[in-house]
Amino acid sequence: MRQLTVSIDRFPIAGKFTISRGSRTEAVVVTATITENGAIGHGECVPYPRYGETVEGVAAAIEAMRPQIEAGLTREALQSFMPAGAARNAVDCALWDLDAKRSGIRAHVTAGLTRWQPVTTAYTISLDTPAAMAEAAAKAAGRPILKVKFGGPGGDIKRIRAVRRAAPDATLIADANEGWTEENLEAHLAACAEEGYALVEQPLPAKADGYLSKIARLVPIMADESVHDRPSLQRLVGLYDVVNIKLDKTGGLTEALELAEAAEALGFSLMIGCMVGTSLAMAPAMVIAPRCRFVDLDGPLLLAKDREPGLRYEGSLVYPPEPALWG
């Protein structure tokens, strides 16, 4: 017989995490645990206010699925019972983990991977003043890929240039989190091109991104807030070059795998990304990582304390999870 447990867990962030929409000092996550005949599956999600989610609402949505889950709901059936989003992500990933624990077949094998190797993750530089961001970038300059948050007051040209000066050898990704406008977009893209940024992520609000079809593509542009699952994908053709897959948007690994395949068929490159969560949230995303041009799974690196056991990080190199963590 199955049993479902839902918990709200808090993990302090090391310092402060700041993007264009605000700052926070802790990661608040919802954990779903499904137990069946001695096997235990775990899944974590990070509710996101940008998508109308609250921690309490997501926990309640998972609790509402208790009868179906405890009656033996499958991952395949789950997709039609719950909408894409954080709540379904926690349940879906818990079911993947439970299946792996019961069968003894690792999740990556079930997903079609024959080899599961470590990958290099980007490391996030939070939005701040140009001087503070340059200082943070200089401290992280030994990391090969930096994802830099923009979209703050006072314009970002100085920030774009300051970070490049501080990390001259790093691959840089600019992430505006919808914080730029039609009026300043081309100037910002030009600055990113001049400074050799590899990618610009979600420069405009999702509802205003049609403007991207009207401008020169100085740097490849990636969708984040504009892409969630497969139904959101077709509209992005001609607007973006890359899509950022996050399990909290897709509603779990099951849809993320389908989204990755559909995006590649339409000619998009891929990034696998994350919210600020623990190693339990990153672990299932590692199944997508081998097919991605960029990997951004640095959530645990931003925390003052991670789950135990957690993922193994060596600098920016992140290793696949051990079974004790997930999958």
TrEMBL record:
One of its GO terms (biological process) is peptide metabolic process. Binds 1 Mg(2+) ion per subunit. Transmembrane segments: none annotated. Residues 130-222 form the Mandelate racemase/muconate lactonizing enzyme C-terminal domain. Keywords: Isomerase, Magnesium, Metal-binding. InterPro entries: Dipeptide_epimerase, Enolase-like_C_sf, Enolase-like_N, Enolase_C-like, Mandelate_racemase_C, Mandelate_racemase_N_dom. Its cofactor is Mg(2+). Its EC number is 5.1.1.-. The keyword Isomerase applies. One of its GO terms (molecular function) is racemase and epimerase activity, acting on amino acids and derivatives. Mg(2+) binds at residues 175, 201, 224. It comes from the Bacteria. The active site is at 149 (proton acceptor), 246 (proton acceptor). It is an enzyme of class 5 (isomerase). CDD domains: L-Ala-DL-Glu_epimerase. Belongs to the mandelate racemase/muconate lactonizing enzyme family. This is Dipeptide epimerase. It comes from Microvirga guangxiensis.
